[in-house]
Specification:
The chain is mainly beta and about 260 residues long. The chain is about 15% helix and about 50% strand. It has one domain (about 20-250): Clam (outer membrane lipoprotein receptor (LolB), chain A), CATH 2.50.20. It has four helices and twelve strands, in the order αααββββαββββββββ.
């Protein structure tokens, strides 16, 4: 009888359980190296532009069961230069426009290009990190750390309102998880939830950002790939933004982008 071979696909959770946790000193070393990379992140990036697609969903169901309705789809051109991102709304539901991102109203978010990383890893935030488990992100091993930033040390701000009403603002704490690539010690995923004070109209806000390598001018850079942002407003409305970043290009004054799937 000829031998038979079986291919066993090991789930990430099983793979993680089979790998022992790193030592305490190794855990501390990895998170400090991840901090150094994160704080230098924007300085390490070239000037570039990309296309950002935002599908915005709303749920007005007061029950726990979610009933999402697609509100609209935004297409933005994101320009990154002088270590800052700049957003320009170029289409709503495939209809061309040329105006500011803020003019779209509703749930909008910014900061995926370094701001979110900096808020977590800045020494002034005094984030407390604790190793949680092994996991895999796009088939690559990653160390998962929980983190907590208290409100008194936070620079994260929520805003509620529009041009016709008074804008309410609150500086809030954050907690969540960072996924650090085992080999490069770069953060490849962030899961963060705001610690919203009682009485603020935005009652919950969470963000997940995935990073992956993209070609810009012939070189590979770790850049935002996808994001999901969820909010609950005044106990009645839930929003979900599904965000994709594509078509990264070297920045030029006359450069344009299109969203390619």
């Amino acid at each position: 009888m000829s031998p038979r071979w079986r291919l066993l696909l090991v789930p990430a959770c099983l793979w993680a359980a089979q790998n022992p946790p790193p030592s305490a000193s190794e855990q501390a070393r990895v998170i400090e190296e991840a901090r150094a990379v994160a704080l230098n992140y924007t300085a390490s990036l070239p000037d570039f532009i990309c296309a950002e697609s935002v599908k915005r969903y709303e749920d007005f169901n007061s029950q726990r069961k979610e009933k999402w309705r697609l509100k609209d789809t935004l297409l933005l051109q994101v320009s990154f230069f002088e270590r800052k991102e700049h957003y320009r709304l170029i289409a709503v539901n495939k209809v061309p426009v040329d105006r500011s991102y803020e003019s779209a109203g509703g749930a909008i978010t910014e900061g995926e290009f370094g701001t979110l990383l900096r808020r977590i890893f800045d020494p002034a935030s005094q984030a407390a990190f604790h190793w949680v488990r092994w996991d895999k992100v796009r088939k690559r091993p990653a160390l998962v750390y929980s983190f907590l930033v208290r409100p008194e040390n936070s620079s994260f701000r929520l805003e509620y309102g529009d041009h016709d009403t008074a804008v309410e603002r609150a500086v809030v704490g954050q907690h969540g998880f960072v996924y650090v690539d085992r080999d490069s010690h770069r953060v490849v995923r962030i899961e963060v939830e705001a610690d919203v004070p009682a009485g603020f109209p935005v009652q919950s806000a969470s963000t997940i950002v995935d990073y992956d390598f993209a070609d810009v001018g012939g070189r590979q850079y770790l850049l935002p790939l996808d994001a999901e942002v969820r909010m609950r407003v005044a106990g009645k409305v839930r929003t979900r933004n599904e965000v994709e970043f594509r078509s990264y290009k070297k920045f030029a004054a006359d450069a344009t982008v299109t969203f390619e799937r």
